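re: the backbone from monday

yeah here it is again, tokenized this time
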């Protein structure tokens, strides 16, 4: 089947999203190797996850403003160029603080990318196929989790973690060239103002949406960031098994993502979130028990991947509908804050996970993951089903 210009542009964005996804999630699979290389502890090395997430939080709402007056193609090229350079620095660096800085910059660009790419995907899509185009673009993240992270974990264990980030640099460079060649030049930007961000933060119903996003998306990372240590030292798996288990986790995440979308269509976003958050609280907590049983922990982690990613569709739908209702004149700003909220949750959860790991031990991380999701469940249980 011959691809037209619209489909090629969407695939270029999906490849870019894949690079962003691998960069964000890969550290969880190779954290012990990174800590050993830099002669530090895993909770300290976990700041590579936390700072990346903080970068996304800052980048999504703030760094889109200076780029907003440029054409979408120019925005994407600047964004991908800086992202590629940041990963090249990580691949070369033997200084932990320089690596931290490069991760922060990469996080900035990740946040900017998904604001720009979401709008661009809708603009280049064929009439009536905007949602499908958006799904294909975002699927790059899920494919990264399923294939990129396990393969990256294998590459990191065999050739060293720097090799993974060099491969990300190469793939991002290919995405850069693809955007340069394929993306149309007639997509003007939409200048935004910082005052819209403050206005979007003053609407109580939107604050509720942001809080639910933080709890739903962040909870898994209290455990996921440090999952390699638990699998090695509590469950007794070999290093070679970690990539396979993460692959199973990712497959279940794709299934969860698809079913979460169908559940949202049939039950509505609030009801879907009630079901999913209840599942998160129960399934995450159970890992503290199943961690001592190899088959049990594999099944439990598959369920964890399912519920962790089932929440994406209802969260985005809830945020979009809330933005349409309460901030119709500056929806982009409201949506960008919600995109940032995804990584507020990841950053906060990774930080809490590091503290729990350092002071209580990894076996307590599942309990705190469940506690992290609990406020989100309470909010949706008290919310009306109709927005």
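seq for it, each position gets an aa:
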């Amino acid at each position: 089947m011959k691809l037209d210009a619209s489909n090629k542009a969407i695939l270029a964005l999906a490849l870019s999203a894949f690079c962003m996804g691998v960069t964000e999630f890969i550290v969880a699979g190779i954290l012990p190797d990174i800590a050993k290389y830099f002669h530090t502890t895993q909770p300290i090395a976990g700041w590579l996850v936390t700072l990346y997430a903080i970068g996304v939080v800052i980048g999504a709402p703030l760094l889109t403003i200076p780029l907003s007056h440029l054409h979408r193609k120019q925005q994407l090229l600047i964004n991908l160029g800086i992202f590629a350079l940041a990963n090249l620095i990580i691949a070369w660096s033997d200084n932990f603080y320089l690596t931290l800085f490069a991760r922060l910059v990469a996080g900035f660009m990740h946040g900017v990318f998904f604001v720009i790419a979401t709008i661009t995907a809708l603009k280049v899509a064929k009439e009536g196929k905007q949602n499908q185009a958006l799904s294909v673009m975002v699927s790059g993240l899920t494919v990264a989790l399923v294939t990129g992270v396990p393969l990256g974990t294998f590459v990191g264990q065999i050739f060293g973690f720097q090799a993974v980030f060099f491969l990300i640099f190469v793939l991002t460079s290919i995405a850069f060239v693809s955007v340069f060649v394929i993306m149309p030049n007639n997509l003007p930007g939409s200048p935004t103002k910082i005052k819209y961000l403050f206005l979007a933060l003053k609407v109580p119903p939107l604050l509720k949406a942001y809080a639910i996003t933080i709890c739903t998306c962040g909870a898994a990372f209290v455990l996921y960031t440090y999952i390699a240590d638990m699998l090695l030292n509590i469950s007794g798996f070999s290093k070679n098994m970690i990539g396979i288990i993460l692959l199973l986790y990712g497959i279940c995440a794709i299934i969860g993502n698809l079913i979460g979308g169908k559940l949202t269509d049939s039950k509505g976003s609030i009801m879907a979130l009630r079901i999913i958050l209840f599942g998160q609280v129960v399934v995450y907590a159970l890992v503290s028990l199943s961690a001592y049983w190899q088959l049990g922990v594999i099944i439990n982690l598959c369920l964890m991947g399912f519920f962790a990613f089932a929440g994406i569709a209802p969260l985005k739908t809830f945020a979009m509908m809330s933005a349409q209702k309460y901030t119709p004149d500056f929806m982009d700003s409201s949506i960008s804050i919600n995109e940032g909220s995804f990584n507020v949750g990841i950053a906060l959860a990774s930080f809490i996970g590091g503290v729990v790991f350092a002071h209580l031990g990894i076996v307590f991380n599942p309990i705190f993951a469940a506690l992290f999701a609990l406020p989100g469940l309470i909010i949706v249980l008290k919310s009306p089903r109709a927005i």
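The chain has 18 helices and no strands. Residues 71 and 239 are 46 Å apart (CA to CA).
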